[in-house]
């Protein structure tokens, strides 16, 4: 509703009388309608400070402050304190204590939104006493600031200093000494300053000259050209600069600052790293032309409009005043300077909008404040708002003047624009003023265009929140508007301080007092209590007590009672206020955590205490979840008109009570048997004790165990239905509560000093479900599963009619599905808990926990769990079960699985565990499950891994290679199998394993040789037309080994036909040397052994060859008689020695001469030593002949070996 404002009436006297003096043209056009809307509240801590100050001093102090049209940031200076907030978020207000005795005003303060949080601020303050800059990087930490000295005024009592924002580059500071500074925040929030005064020039008086004193500084609004440049910079390049705010102004390339000095009006362009003066206008000369008496400066304001040519024009408005001692009057004027393209277009005096003030008490601290917006002028002064528009459009005509004033019952602190709306501030709150036709028509077309563009840049700042609460004003016939509504105050969180009970209670109360002071932003008191708390040695215990006190706080019984009823009379009713109580506890406990964090007290806490605080926070959340569940349950029961006709199992519970209600009453009765005399109903008592909210899980588990005890076999169907209902609801509750706790907290004790935890209760609940299915539904569930029991494949035959009847009478649709759904959710949760809290047990029991789903043919659930928890045992088991179903036609379970689906399950399993490096373990388990055929039929992607795995299983390895036509692998596998059996033959004999026969080895070697030839022939045919085999070096060695083994087998069969087991080369040689030859020449054996040795170089080590040849030579020389013959000539002796077996062996072409040369002397020397002292010599001549014979043999042998080497 709009009110007339043609005759302003002031309701409250002030020191000094102000009046508005319109011209005759104004009088004709001044009548218009207005609307005042209480829109926002003042912050509670500001309202509280005002009330406290008024009560203490019984006088009203002036409010002064500012509203940023850019982002709605407000600040108010009151009683030497600075209050900062965003206009639409009074609940987030910060409080900073200002330096005392410095007469800080709004021209000394600049506030930005903090870059890290839109609800926190950064503050600049320039000292009018010492000239320094103080900076608070985060207003929520008022004790953390830094000072930057600029210029010390000394004893200059007329020193003045001014500051204005220059976002994103910092702030501009000017003083009466003529200095102009750009103060910026750089790395790590360090302040730096840069003097940006214009150069004095060559014609100045050098150092004797001084800068003109600064009178005012003001930031130009973000104009259209800057926004266009900003948009272009997004298309062409990114321009980075230091920013103090969380908005996107950091991309604006430049800002314009107006600085008024005693000599001229300067316009600066501030860029990132550069500053330049783009306008220097001698304004003082123009003022002397327009005013007979040189007026004094009061305020500067800048507005931006767009003319008919769509060019931007900046209008610089000055409030000037002159004092008339004869008339006892102060008169205020508005001077306008229009600037376009950094050139002054015109300057004019706005006589049609001036105001007078009687000098009743001298000039007070409240002076006129001018706000402009697209040729709309608002002058806020004492308890009046004067408004004026010339050519603003609307009801007064395009060229008409619209003006008037509105008076209020109390003074107006200050005013400003936000989102193109005019707001004014007073002790009663923040109100929006809408004047017709100011708020309609084409008034603000240019401003709206600019604001819309800014909104696109600052979408996170400009929020479309506008309360439309109607205002209580005077009737249409009354010219004055009276603001009489009381705004709704958003109260902060405050705690009642209980009486001190003991020392720990006293310490707890100090923490509560700390939180109250923190809530009211009483920083001095906060610092005091923080210091006290830091002195507590048992601070952990104190904080634990505070947390417990908050979450277990009981409500006032009178508060919860309604209509005078006694609470114990409606035990089963649910109080709506319980939701509010729990939400309040959540809010207060969160506030405790915030308080100790922001005061750095959390650094004093141990990890155990932090976990207790976190767990208490979780318990509040759990209580809220339970409360919501109970409300939904009660609403559902009422809507369905649900009643239970069965007798209840739980003792002392009403038949109409839900199972959850019965559990609550049971737990409350356990804690306090006389609870009905407390004056609170059972639910209020339960939810008040938040710290013990999880104890109900113990009751749930106990009830489930009682449920499965043997019951009298009466009304079996009814009892089963009742049990099913209890089981399902208890399991649902258990899962709901356990889900409120993060997995890592499930293993912490429910009751201190006990081992009972949610984690330990899971197996009992899971087992209860399994036992219930097995004991209570043997027929029904077996009928569903098609077997004789849970997970059985027997011949149980349950009629489908009994199952349908059971479901109908029970009233629970799909009861089997519900049971398995609960079993699945609880099993999944428990597995997660095991994985986090008991990893070794997790690996040990995960297959066992999933096994019931496999046995009951819930394969999809089993597969899902197995994939979640990397359980390949279950996946292979499911494959086997499903394969069994596909191959066994007698199984009657309905299934849609196909062989392709089951094969995909196996392949997916192998792919999954190949990625995590456990593929060999899967292969191994497949062998355990006798899935040899499946292994051999795997796709070629698994060839390499399967070949490596089957190296230890040669029986399958070479078959697998044949199937894949990998003849090289076939040859290698058979070859390795043949030689490995040979190497481990003795060990196998000791273990009584089957020993490979000579025939089997010959077969393996022959197949290996053939495979090698096929492999070589295949590769040769693909690369060359020649049939000649191209063997690789390794293949050639393998072929040679195979041939030598085959040759050895052939020799063994010839010389040792009775031995069927595989022998080594050494064994064959030794046995040949030992065999009885009868009348045959022993030389046959010796030569055969040498040939076997020479044909087996790859089967013998060098030392083995040496030892075998040594044995042969030693045996050959033993029975020679030539050494003992008498009266023999040298020629005959030589002939005789050359006919010896020893000499013939040495000279044999297959006898290695290098080994012969090594063995020759030692063997003959040993032979000589053995016989020289024997009794075979009858005379010295015989002994002499023996020595000659031995020496001659050595000589002849060496000669023979030497000739052979040559």
From TrEMBL:
Any one annotated GO CC term: nuclear pore outer ring
Region (Disordered) location: 226-246
Organism: Dictyostelium discoideum
GO biological process: poly(A)+ mRNA export from nucleus; protein import into nucleus; transcription-dependent tethering of RNA polymerase II gene DNA at nuclear periphery
InterPro entries: Nup133-like (IPR037624), WD40/YVTN_repeat-like_dom_sf (IPR015943)
Subcellular location: Nucleus
Keywords annotated in UniProt: Nucleus, Transport
Gene: nup133
Protein name: Nucleoporin 133
Family per record: Belongs to the nucleoporin Nup133 family.
MF GO annotations: structural constituent of nuclear pore
Keyword Hydrolase annotated: no
């Amino acid at each position: 509703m709009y009110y007339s404002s043609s005759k302003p009436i002031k309701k409250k006297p002030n020191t000094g009388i102000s009046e508005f003096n319109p011209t005759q043209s104004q009088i004709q056009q001044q009548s218009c309608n207005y609307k005042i809307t209480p829109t926002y509240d003042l912050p509670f801590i500001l309202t509280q400070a005002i009330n406290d100050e008024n009560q203490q001093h019984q006088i009203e102090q002036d409010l002064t402050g500012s509203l940023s049209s850019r982002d709605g940031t407000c600040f108010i200076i009151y009683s030497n304190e600075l209050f900062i907030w965003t206009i639409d978020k009074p609940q987030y207000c910060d409080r900073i204590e200002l330096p005392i005795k410095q007469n800080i005003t709004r021209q000394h303060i600049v506030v930005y939104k903090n870059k890290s949080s839109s609800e926190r601020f950064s503050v600049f303050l320039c000292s009018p006493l010492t000239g320094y800059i103080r900076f608070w990087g985060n207003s929520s930490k008022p004790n953390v600031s830094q000072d930057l000295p600029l210029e010390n005024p000394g004893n200059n009592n007329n020193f003045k200093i001014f500051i204005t924002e220059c976002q994103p580059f910092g702030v501009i500071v000017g003083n009466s000494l003529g200095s102009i500074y750009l103060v910026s925040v750089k790395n790590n929030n360090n302040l730096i300053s840069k003097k940006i005064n214009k150069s004095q020039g060559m014609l100045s008086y050098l150092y004797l000259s001084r800068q003109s004193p600064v009178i005012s500084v003001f930031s130009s609004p973000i104009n259209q050209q800057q926004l266009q440049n900003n948009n272009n910079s997004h298309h062409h390049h990114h321009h980075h600069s230091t920013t103090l705010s969380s908005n996107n102004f950091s991309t604006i390339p430049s800002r314009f600052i107006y600085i008024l000095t005693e000599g001229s009006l300067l316009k600066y362009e501030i860029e990132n790293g550069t500053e330049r003066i783009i306008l220097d206008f001698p304004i003082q000369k123009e003022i002397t032309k327009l005013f007979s008496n040189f007026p004094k400066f009061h305020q500067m304001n800048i507005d931006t409009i767009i003319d008919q040519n769509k060019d931007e024009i900046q209008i610089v408005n000055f409030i000037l005043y002159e004092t008339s001692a004869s008339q006892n009057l102060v008169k205020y004027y508005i001077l306008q300077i229009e600037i376009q393209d950094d050139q002054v277009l015109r300057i004019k005096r706005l006589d049609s909008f001036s105001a007078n003030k009687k000098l009743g008490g001298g000039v007070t601290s409240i002076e006129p404040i001018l706000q402009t917006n697209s040729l709309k002028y608002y002058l806020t002064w004492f308890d009046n708002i004067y408004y004026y528009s010339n050519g603003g459009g609307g009801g007064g005509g395009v060229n008409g003047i619209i003006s008037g004033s509105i008076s209020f019952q109390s003074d107006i602190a200050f005013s400003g624009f936000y989102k193109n709306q005019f707001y004014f501030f007073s002790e009663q709150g923040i109100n929006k003023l809408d004047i017709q036709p100011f708020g309609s028509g084409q008034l603000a077309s240019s401003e709206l265009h600019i604001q819309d563009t800014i909104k696109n840049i600052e979408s996170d700042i400009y929020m479309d929140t506008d309360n439309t609460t109607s205002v209580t004003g005077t009737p249409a016939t009354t010219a004055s508007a009276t603001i009489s509504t009381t705004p709704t105050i958003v109260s902060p969180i405050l705690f009642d301080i209980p009486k001190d009970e003991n020392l720990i209670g006293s310490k707890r109360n100090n923490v509560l007092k700390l939180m109250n002071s923190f809530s009211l932003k009483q920083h001095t008191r906060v610092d005091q209590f923080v210091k006290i708390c830091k002195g507590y040695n048992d601070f952990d215990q104190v904080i634990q007590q505070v947390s417990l006190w908050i979450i277990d706080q009981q409500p006032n019984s009178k508060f919860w009672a309604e209509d005078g009823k006694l609470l114990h009379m409606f035990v089963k009713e649910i109080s709506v206020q319980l939701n509010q109580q729990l939400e309040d506890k959540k809010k207060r406990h969160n506030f405790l955590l915030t308080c100790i964090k922001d005061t750095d007290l959390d650094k004093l806490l141990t990890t155990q205490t932090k976990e207790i605080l976190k767990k208490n926070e979780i318990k509040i959340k759990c209580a809220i979840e339970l409360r919501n569940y109970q409300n939904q349950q009660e609403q559902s029961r009422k809507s369905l008109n649900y009643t239970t006709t069965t007798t209840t199992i739980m003792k002392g519970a009403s038949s109409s009570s839900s199972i959850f209600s019965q559990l609550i009453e049971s737990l409350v009765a356990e804690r306090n048997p006389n609870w009905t005399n407390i004056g609170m109903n059972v639910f209020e008592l339960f939810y008040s004790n938040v710290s013990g909210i999880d104890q109900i899980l113990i009751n749930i588990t106990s009830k489930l165990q009682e449920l499965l005890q043997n019951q009298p076999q009466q009304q079996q169907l009814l009892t089963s239905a009742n049990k099913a209902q209890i089981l399902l609801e208890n399991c649902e509750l258990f899962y709901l509560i356990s889900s409120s706790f993060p997995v890592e907290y499930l293993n912490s004790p429910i009751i201190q000093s006990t081992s009972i935890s949610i984690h330990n209760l899971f197996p009992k609940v899971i087992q209860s479900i399994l036992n219930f299915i097995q004991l209570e539904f043997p027929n029904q569930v077996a009928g569903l599963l098609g077997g004789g029991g849970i997970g059985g494949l027997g011949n149980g035959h349950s009629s489908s009619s009994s199952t349908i009847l059971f479901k109908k009478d029970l009233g629970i649709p799909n009861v089997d599905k519900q049971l398995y759904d609960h079993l699945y959710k609880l099993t999944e949760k428990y597995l997660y808990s095991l994985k986090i809290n008991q990893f070794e047990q997790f690996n040990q029991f995960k297959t066992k926990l999933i096994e019931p789903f496999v046995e009951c043919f819930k394969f999809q659930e089993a597969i899902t769990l197995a994939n979640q928890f990397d359980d390949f045992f279950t996946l292979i088991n499911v494959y086997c079960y499903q394969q069994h179903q596909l191959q066994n036609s007698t199984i009657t379970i309905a299934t849609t699985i196909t062989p392709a689906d089951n094969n995909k399950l196996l392949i997916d399993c192998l792919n999954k565990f190949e990625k995590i490096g456990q593929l060999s373990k899967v292969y191994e388990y497949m062998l355990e499950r006798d899935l040899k055929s499946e292994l051999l039929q795997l796709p070629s992607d698994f060839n390499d891994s399967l070949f490596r795995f089957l190296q230890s299983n040669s029986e399958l390895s070479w078959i697998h290679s044949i199937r894949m036509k990998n003849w090289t692998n076939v040859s290698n596998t058979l070859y390795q199998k043949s030689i490995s059996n040979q190497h481990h033959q003795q060990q196998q004999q000791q273990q009584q394993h089957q020993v490979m026969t000579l025939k089997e080895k010959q077969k393996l070697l022959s197949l290996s040789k053939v495979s090698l030839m096929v492999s070589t022939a295949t590769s040769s045919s693909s690369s060359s037309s020649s049939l000649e085999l191209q063997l690789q070096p390794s293949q050639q060695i393998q072929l040679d080994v195979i041939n030598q083994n085959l040759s050895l087998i052939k020799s063994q069969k010839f010389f040792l036909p009775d031995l069927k087991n595989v022998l080594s080369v050494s064994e064959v040689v030794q046995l040949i040397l030992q065999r009885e030859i009868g009348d045959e020449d022993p030389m046959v054996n010796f030569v055969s052994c040498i040939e076997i040795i020479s044909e087996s170089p790859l089967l013998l080590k060098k030392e083995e060859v040496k030892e075998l040849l040594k044995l042969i030579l030693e045996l050959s020389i033993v029975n020679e008689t030539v050494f003992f013959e008498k009266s023999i000539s040298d020629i005959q002796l030589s002939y005789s020695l050359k006919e010896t077996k020893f000499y013939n062996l040495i000279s044999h072409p297959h006898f290695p001469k290098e080994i012969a040369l090594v063995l020759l002397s030692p063997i003959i020397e040993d032979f000589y030593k053995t016989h020289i002292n024997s009794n075979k010599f009858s005379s010295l001549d015989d002994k002499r002949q023996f020595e000659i014979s031995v020496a001659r043999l050595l000589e002849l042998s060496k000669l023979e070996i030497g000739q052979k080497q040559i």
